[in-house]
Design brief:
This protein is mostly helical and about 625 residues long. The chain is built from 24 helices and no strands.
């Protein structure tokens, strides 16, 4: 009977989803909204339309939908797109998150919903629906407009930070559970808020973000070196079936690794998608994955509707209205202000602010996360669905309204204000690096990035070793190796493994010192002291780097450090080996770096060929 129930439920969901797709395409409305409404109509909270027998199976398939949806979003992301939008998009997202977190938390406190509901509500309101905004801009044929490119960049950052936010929210929720476990049921809610506030302080948040960024850096670099080459090898067989199975295998395999590292599966799906976005096979992968993604994404959004309770919506009508207004005006103010300050002009700022005034799929995922962790109330989910529905419906009209409002605002402004605004834009343009200065900034940025990547690999190796050190030492003990001997073995192997990256980072910092000395100390200002000052800078930075690297190794070795006597001897041996094998280490690192840049270059060429008519 279970098999027949499964077929029955899947048939109902897909038939309803198919009908909704036709209907909403016909009226040019977001299909996502239609899927949610379909789930409401066939769900258990809107009798007599309940048609689903085994909701657990639908939930399992919806989880697949989340993975494939985020994997597809990752395929739309690549490093060049991220670099092209610059810091404007990043700061726009940060401003949006700060404003919406504040508004969401304040609204929850105003209605007396409690601190955890406020935190999750703020997070839900912070993220923008990339699915909806991209579809709306495409439908309005505005995707080549200047504001559209900026919006696409913002939603890329938004998706990335939303995943990081989910990791933080999970940590906060787990802290709350620990804090509430030691108190009675009557005091659990109050203890939860206190535990969340005390347990997840600034240092804890920074530590979580640091580990997350370290994981993303190492995973992205290693993935970009390995995965595209594997996909190129599979592509030689010219089999769509083989390519699809390989891509899905990599997707779910990487999600499993991420799950073992206690991160969100959503994070794994997005990251592996972003890695595959650097492959020459991305057009083929996108074509093959699209129907699979569409099927499971439809199930995901229908399952969201199944959880929706219309009765709660009527009960919380006033909060829904207030939250909708907060989303529209809050996001408009936050994103639009940053774009305006960045010098893009009032019209672009207005269109960007209007375009981002909605919430969507990540908001639902965050709402479901709060419920699954047991830290939010049931009413928060239908509120999120209702707000998403309303803001999705008004988004096309807000974008169309942006130009008339912009013209009206410009006409109503005093001439002096318009003149000052033009002067500000001209000033921003004038301070942009030009000529040699632009080249200098590009070189410094590239060197710093390479140093960060190299040190990320070293840090990742030591953190991994510290995590598995007890098991490794126990295994070595079976071979008669003492605990000190086991620590020494692990430490020596780690340092030798890290040497290529440490030597490369040291070489990059020496190059950076010469660039800074050359461009930073001008004879015009330093006179005859220019050359001595340049020599000092060129010598001091590498010296500080050596001391910093030694300190870094000692800090990261805590827990696996050998005895002091062994440590001094091993430092001497390791540095001797490093000096003796420095050329070989440099060749190894150069090959890895060449493989990385070759992949990025190949992807850029593939994108260019793909765009040709």
């Amino acid at each position: 009977m279970h098999g027949s129930d499964f077929v029955h439920d899947l048939a109902i969901v897909m038939l309803v989803a198919g009908f909704v797709t036709l209907l909403f395409h016909r009226f040019k409305q977001p299909v996502v909204l239609g899927y949610i409404l379909a789930g409401v109509f066939i769900g258990p909270h809107t009798p007599p339309f309940e048609m689903i027998n085994d909701k657990d199976t639908i939930d399992t398939m919806a989880s697949l939908g989340v993975i494939l949806l985020l994997f597809a979003l990752g395929l739309e992301f690549n490093l060049k797109k991220l670099a092209s939008v610059g810091w404007t998009a990043f700061f726009a997202v940060l401003a949006e998150i700060m404003v919406m977190m504040t508004l969401g938390y304040s609204i929850a406190m105003y209605f007396g919903w409690g601190s955890m509901n406020g935190i999750f509500l703020g997070a839900m309101l912070s993220v923008t629906s990339s699915t909806i905004i991209i579809k709306v801009i495409n439908d309005l044929k505005l995707k080549h407009e200047r504001f559209a490119q900026l919006v696409f960049g913002i939603v890329i950052f938004d998706d990335m930070l939303a995943i990081g936010m989910m990791v933080l929210l999970t940590s906060i929720a787990l802290t709350v559970e620990v804090g509430a476990a030691g108190v009675g049921a009557a005091a659990a809610v109050g203890a939860a808020g206190e535990a969340g506030a005390a347990g997840v302080g600034v240092l804890a948040v920074l530590a979580i973000l640091g580990k997350l960024m370290l994981f993303l850096t190492v995973a992205m670099v290693l993935g970009i070196i390995i995965v595209p080459r594997l996909l190129n090898y599979v592509a030689r067989y010219k089999s769509d079936e083989m390519m699809l199975v390989t891509v899905l295998g990599l997707c779910f395999g990487f999600c499993l690794i991420v799950l073992k590292l206690e991160y969100s599966v959503a994070l794994g799906a997005f990251v592996i998608g972003a890695i595959m976005a650097e492959s020459r096979q991305i057009p083929t992968i996108a074509r093959l994955i699209e129907p699979v993604r569409n099927m499971f994404s439809a199930i995901f959004f229908v399952s969201i509707g199944l959880l929706f309770e219309p009765a709660l919506l009527f009960e919380y009508a006033w909060p829904v209205v207030l939250i909708v207004l907060a989303v529209v005006f809050g996001k408009f103010f936050a994103a639009g202000s940053v774009v305006l300050i960045a010098g893009y002009g009032g019209r672009t700022a207005m269109r960007v602010g209007m375009g981002l005034s909605q919430i969507g799929e990540f908001s639902f995922i965050i709402a479901m996360l709060g419920q699954s962790l047991g830290v939010t109330d049931a009413f928060l989910y239908p509120i999120a669905v209702a707000v998403a529905a309303v803001t999705s419906l008004v988004t096309p009209y807000l974008i169309k309204l942006a130009d008339p409002l912009s013209r009206k605002a410009t006409e109503s402004m005093p001439a002096r204000v318009v003149y000052i605004g033009q002067l500000y834009s001209d000033w921003l343009q004038s301070i942009q690096p030009q000529g040699d200065r632009a080249l200098q900034v590009a070189i410094i940025r590239r060197i710093v990035l390479q140093v960060i990547v190299n040190l990320a690999f070293v840090t990742g190796a030591f953190m991994t070793a510290r995590y598995y050190a007890p098991d490794i030492i126990a295994s070595l003990a079976d071979w008669g190796v003492s605990e000190d001997g086991g620590r020494l073995t692990i430490w020596v192997l780690l340092v030798l493994l890290s040497l290529p990256f440490l030597l490369a980072a040291y070489g990059k910092l020496k190059a950076l010192s010469m660039v800074l000395a050359e461009f930073g100390v001008s004879p015009t200002f330093a006179g005859r002291y220019a050359e001595p000052v340049r020599r000092v800078i060129a010598e001091v930075i590498p010296l500080v780097a050596i001391i910093g690297f030694l300190f870094l190794i000692v800090i990261m070795s805590l827990g696996i450090l050998p005895t002091v006597g062994q440590l001094g001897l091993m430092f001497a041996i390791v540095f001797f080996l490093g000096w003796l094998l420095r050329d070989r280490f440099r060749k190894i690192h150069a090959r890895l770096q060449a493989a990385l840049f070759e992949t990025l270059s190949d992807n850029a060429d593939a994108e260019g060929e793909h765009k040709k008519p």
